[in-house]
Design brief:
190 residues; Nucleoside Triphosphate Pyrophosphohydrolase; single chain; five-stranded mixed beta sheet; alpha+beta; globular; three-stranded antiparallel beta sheet
Length: 190
């Protein structure tokens, strides 16, 4: 296996994503260029930026989304984090959802990317400002909806879809909600 083979599944996910959302081709092309130019794109040690994975995590009734009040960034966000060398971004999103929510049972609603985003992370201590190249997946609780607040969060909250803007005006989170609303009718038809 050649060194960059571990990037191929991510490149395929991104190409499939842009085929579904051609209006986001500029951002996706920037993401593709970053991955192709950086064989170590999954490593946190890449100081210009790195791949991350996150979850737009629904409750078992698919009526609310779990947000975390992020301890370091002091904002309400979806659960997620660094790939730390793991090239399977879906696995990263699932692991972060499990760790940050404490939920015992979580499943993928779809294996396709729900959203991608590139955002700047401010400089802190020994880390310069850098970019997170985030892959977001739609997951749902498949058991108890009783979460556990981890040390990475100030708080967690199940937020009804119609109340999301009370917690955040973050464009990418509102974009994920819009895409989720498009997917939910298909989900109930299954």
């Amino acid at each position: 296996m050649s060194p960059d083979d571990n990037r191929q599944p991510l490149l395929q996910l991104l190409n499939d994503y842009v085929a579904r959302y051609p209006g986001e081709s500029g951002m996706v092309q920037r993401y593709l260029d970053f991955v192709q130019a950086n064989p170590n794109c999954f490593a946190r040690s890449l100081l210009i930026g790195h791949v991350t994975g996150s979850a737009f995590l629904l409750d078992s009734g698919c009526k609310q989304v779990l947000l975390t009040h992020h301890a370091k960034l002091d904002r309400w966000l979806q659960p997620g984090g660094h790939a730390d060398g793991e090239s399977n971004v879906a696995s990263v999103a699932m692991q972060e959802a499990l760790e940050e929510s404490g939920l015992p049972d979580i499943e993928f609603v779809t294996s396709e990317l729900l959203d991608v985003d590139i955002h700047a992370i401010p400089a802190r201590k020994d880390e310069p400002e850098h970019f997170h190249y985030d892959c977001r997946f739609l997951l749902k609780s498949s058991g108890s909806d009783q979460f556990v607040v981890s040390e990475e969060s100030h708080d967690l909250a199940w937020v009804p879809f119609e109340s999301l803007t009370r917690y955040t005006e973050e464009e990418s989170i509102l974009r994920m909600l819009a895409k989720t609303m498009d997917i939910l009718p298909d989900l109930s038809a299954r």
